[in-house]
Amino acid sequence: MIVSCDNKQVKRIAKLLKSAKYRREEGVFVVEGLRGFSEVPDALIETVFVSENLDPDPGTKKRLDSLHTEVLKDDVFQKVSDTVTAQGVLAIVKMQEYDLDSLIKEGGLYLVLETIQDPGNLGTIIRTAEGAGVDAVIMSKDTVDIFSPKVVRATMGALFREPFVYAEDLNAVVKKLHACNIKCYAAHLKGKRTFWEEDFIKGTAFFIGNEGNGLSDELSGKADTLIKIPMEGKLESLNAAVSASLLGYEAKRQRTLKSLIAVIAAAGLIGLLSLNAYADPASKILRDESVGAMVVFDSHAYNDESTDKLGIEVEEEVPDTESSNLVMANVKSALHVRAKADIESEIVGKIYKDCGGKVLERGEEWSLIETGELVGWASNEFLLFDEEAEELARDVGFVNALVTDTAVYVRSAPNYNAPILGIMSQNAIAEVVNDGESRWVEVAYGDDNGFVPASSVKIKFEVDHGETMAMIKERKRLEEEARLALIRQRESMQSDENIQRLLGALIQCEAGGEPYEGMLAVGAVVMNRVRSGAYPSTVYDVIYASGQFTPAKTGSLSRVYNNGPKQICVQAAIEALNGYTNVGDMTHFRRVGTKEGYVIGHHVFY
Hints:
The chain has 606 residues and is an alpha+beta fold. The protein has 19 helices and 32 strands. β25 (429-434) and β26 (440-445) form a beta hairpin. It is globular.
């Protein structure tokens, strides 16, 4: 135990907290508090210091035991702490390094910051950049130190996930952006058009200026377009972080809408899309996992056969056993469905592991089943009925809440006085996290959970289904086209680099906003499936298996792959590919609250 403030390590901590120059010389910085510590990847931690009376939860204790940890006497820890109320944990963390040239690419989204001086502003901008899907934050060399304690706290962990770089010369940065066809916009009082009138779908960079003086004439003169943020009253400008948030999320909104329309058009459902529903962040049938975008269809489309093209079949809650017509596939991979109740009969489709449907006619050896568009005969040997089917369905299916009122508030707690998180419009669908409360239903809402009145929604149950041979043929054709396209795009790359990139892209789609441990866990789930024998034996085939990963189905995975996943997601992929697992041999994950299991961030693994 370290008992004196004169200890060399204690003095080093104090100096790291106060001096940006010393931090740069040492290549490390300080992260303080349980929340901050939980966000730091283990690979970046040099040393952890804890107070003598710290009583960590089991998960934190297990992690501390695996790291180089030093104990400080309570009064020593309090004196060295940068916070008023010390939480008993601080870590010396290695600085991440990013290369400007590798960060800038065609189609990217960037924030370029000039002389931002307020630590809270910079921290908030970094956090917002992650949320809005900004590819990198580029800062002038005289911007406040991103590794200062106040900035680190304000990022709320985004510092370890959002790429950033300091640039010696922003003029040179602008040249690099233009070379990659990135259009540069400056938020400026002289802007002629409001920011929502511009097109940010292609490569975009936003220039954000100093809190007091705004952008310099030199940098704003380098912009392709000056844009304005309209303001009422006598305001002349907004906080730099607020401006960055407005611009970043407008770009996210435009890009999300374009990609979703493309997906829907490809599925032949463009006539069903309600564009007005886009303004409702809770409306969904399709979810783009990489950015959390959602859309809603008219209610008559829920059970229309056309929705089956998207793998969607909404049914009532699983009925009582005596009258149940539910059937589930009891296979390791796939089961042939035939035109007749005969092993020699023509194969008309396949039903996969964890998929289900309904029994149309149940025989002694064969049953006629309907699963999505597929209708045919399957051997009872590989089917589950009654209680067994219901048990599996509850394990792998999803429970959704369909809004029946014109609109309903989503609240942060199950009472009418709780803060409002947002609004769900009529016919919007949200995944049910918990419906145990008689008057309220807990639903997944963006990155958090919210509550809606039980009287305003109808609970629906959903399981994935099989495919006809025609659907399989078309899917394989599209998959082969995508595979060949990837090969053509990356002919010079090694095979393992392709796989790292693909798995990194999936991790970004599924867990881009999670702590690093959550990213690792998603990668481990994929690799556990590859090794299990119950799933395809390659990373590519596991990821693109029917009904498994939504981003692979919606196209968001391909988009992230083509644009290049974030470096930290690739790092997690490499660790998983090398055999690291922090979830044992678990092969599934869902949002917290939908199932029991091992919780990391917003996901539960089982």
